[in-house]
Amino acid sequence: MKIKHAVMIGLLGRQSDRFHTYTEARSLAERLEMLREIPGCQGIEVVYPAEFRDVEEGRRLILASGWPVSAVNLNVKGDPKWRNGSFTSSDPAIRADAVRELKFCMDLAADLGTDLVTCCPLMDGHNYSFQADYVQQWHWLVEGIREAARHRPDIRISLEYKRTEARNFCVLGDMGRALYLCNQVGLGNVGITFDLGHALIAHESPAAMAALAADAGKLFYVHFNDNGRDWDWDMIPGAVHVWDVLETLYYLQHFDWQGWFSYDVLTRSGDDVLGVQAATMRVMAAAEKLLAKIGHARIAEFIAQGAPHESLPSLWEALL
């Protein structure tokens, strides 16, 4: 398994919740330079339109930085036009706009030297009973993604699922629906962004979901973070679910998965965004070393035996 590690550069800028602003705003040029202080960083995930309000300037700064781009992340939630949905809006002009922006991001990705566009359609879903025609919403989503994917077969579209936020019920809420969408679209360049934290809040087994996506050939991209299964807190990986991180890594190695890890991790204590991102890289490096220490063959034996009273003490002893 050959993994490259990317930072979502938006996380080096302003971060706020409903009550506080935790980190200060910084220009794209400042953030691109800050990345050089994060040991282990090998690339960047960039967001459209946030980094491209001036498209040519954003493109110029990113290319001039020399940082490889892991993915272009299309945001279809922040601008006011997406308030009532993007790919599943009842307004055909808004749906067409979402498809158009996805196509634009595919062209932008090619310009920036990556073959991947990722998108998490968080405004698509519903809040109340009898608010949405679920089947129609689903058909609009399938049709929109299929149309965009046909625009450039050389660029992959990676869809990120999430159970809730901003809608109470997101239309692409879990791995099952994400795989079903890939199946219905029926094109080889449509796959899945697996976010470990999103699997947790969907009450899924993260490793099982990553394994299913990899087995289907649809695991295109991976986000690591953590939470308490109650909300998407975007904590440092392993802060809560040590064994879920390790088991997910095990299955990615099992499938010899090749690609990028990107880290959707927030800073909510102080303003040390570099420290938080560096800590994330350190944790993931330590998790890989721990997995190597236990050994792939030994873990395979644990799985074959199916005896937690044998495996769990051995796993804990490996931490000593």
CATH second-level architecture: Alpha-Beta Barrel
Highest CATH level, the class: Alpha Beta
| Main sheet attributes: strand count, strand direction, barrel closure | 8 strands, parallel, barrel
Instruction: Note the total helix count.
Output: 11
- Give the overall average pLDDT: 96
Number of structurally distinct domains:
1
Give me the oligomer status. Answer: single chain
- The radius of gyration over CA amounts to 19 Å
Which homologous superfamily in CATH is the superfamily?
Answer: Divalent-metal-dependent TIM barrel enzymes
- Termini separation comes to 26 Å
Q: What portion of residues belong to β-strands?
A: 15-25%
Q: Could you spell the SSE succession in H and E letters? A: EEEHEHEHEEHEEHEHHEHEHHH
Question: Strand sequence of the main sheet, in spatial order?
Answer: 1-4-5-6-8-10-11-12
| Residues in helices, as a percent range | 40-55%
Per DSSP E runs of 2 or more residues, the count of β-strands stands at 12
Structural notes for this entry:
With 320 residues, the chain is an alpha/beta fold. It has one domain (3-317): Divalent-metal-dependent TIM barrel enzymes (TIM Barrel). Helix content is 43%, strand content 17%. The protein contains eleven helices and twelve strands. It has an eight-stranded parallel β-barrel with strand order 1-4-5-6-8-10-11-12, surrounded by five helices. The protein has a two-stranded antiparallel ribbon with strand order 2-3. A two-stranded antiparallel sheet has the order 7-9. A hairpin with a 4-residue loop joins strand 2 and strand 3 (21-23). Helix 1 (28-34) packs parallel to helix 2 and helix 8 crosses helix 9 (273-294). The longest helix has 22 residues, at 273-294. The mean pLDDT is 96.
